[in-house]
Design goal:
Metallo-beta-lactamase, Chain A, 30% strand, seven-stranded mixed β-sheet
């Protein structure tokens, strides 16, 4: 039986003879059902209509995204550390060329995902590369296709191995997570943020939302918490969730300034009355 994929968010559902009645992820205030209604596809169909594109940002970090864009349109990151490769976030499309390329670079030792909008076909990726998927337990209710390779973690941080840490920020989702790698940016550190910290269109700032398509902001105290939990970490670069959403330099200072600007805006501070 097919494993249907929602075309609006890319989430894959368990085997079913009939398409799901609705997408739980889309039928929630942080996402949306398109005006045309809920439509569905399969991974097999996607392999006929889409391919993946790759971009090397720096030694050790390669972006992977679907062409043409599919569902939310995010790209994943292959983070190549000395102790193994990590797939950060996930995209729905997975084709033979992608598998060949990644296997040629050493495969995938672990998969980690920022939040449920990017779970997509994570189980397919896990099976192909025999890799565990690390998700924060606070978001377990949004797992639509369960699998033994999914490993839930709890608490505020989880070390995958030396120099690679998952950090729970919350915000966009209760279990919203970023990845910190000390070895990125020539040893100055990087944060892979998904849209838990979203890089703005001008690539000069970060912003923070409960829902991006439906324009629901976060409380000031929630955004201040994000700043606090990332304060101990050193990083030069932040990778957002689209190919062009990267803050290449001084990203720690950008985060601090962005938290202050956001709080001033929502609380009506000077210049935002």
């Amino acid at each position: 039986m097919p494993l249907f994929i929602c075309t609006a968010c890319g989430t894959q559902y368990p085997e079913s003879a009939q398409v799901p009645l609705h997408c739980v992820i889309c039928d929630e205030e942080r996402q949306y059902i398109p005006p045309r209604g809920q439509t569905w596809t399969t991974l097999q169909a996607l392999r006929q209509s889409h391919t993946n594109t790759f971009r090397e940002y720096e030694k050790g970090i390669i972006g992977i995204g679907s062409t043409p864009a599919f569902a939310i349109g995010q790209r994943a990151l292959l983070v190549r550390t000395g102790d193994g490769n990590i797939l950060w976030d996930c995209i729905a499309t997975l084709d033979d060329a992608t598998v060949t390329m990644i296997n040629g670079l050493g495969g995938i030792a672990a998969i980690a995902i920022s939040h449920p909008h990017f779970y997509t076909t994570m189980v397919e990726w896990a099976h192909v590369f025999n890799a565990r998927v690390h998700l924060h337990a606070a978001d377990k209710q949004w797992i639509m296709r369960s699998d033994p390779l999914i490993e839930l973690w709890d608490g505020e941080a989880k070390a995958l191995w030396k120099g690679v840490t998952l950090v729970r920020c919350g915000g966009h989702f209760e279990g919203g997570t970023v990845l910190h790698w000390t070895g990125g940016a020539d040893g100055r550190g990087v944060v892979c943020a998904g849209d838990i910290l979203t890089v703005t269109t001008d690539r000069k700032w970060l912003s923070f939302m409960r829902s991006y398509p439906n324009f629901i902001p976060l409380a000031a105290r929630t955004v201040e918490h994000i700043g606090r939990v990332l304060k101990p970490f050193v990083f030069e670069t932040i990778y957002g969730h689209y190919f062009d959403r990267v803050i290449a330099k001084d990203a720690k200072a950008v985060l601090e300034a962005s938290v202050a600007r956001y709080v001033a805006a929502v609380e009506g501070g000077r210049g935002y009355e």
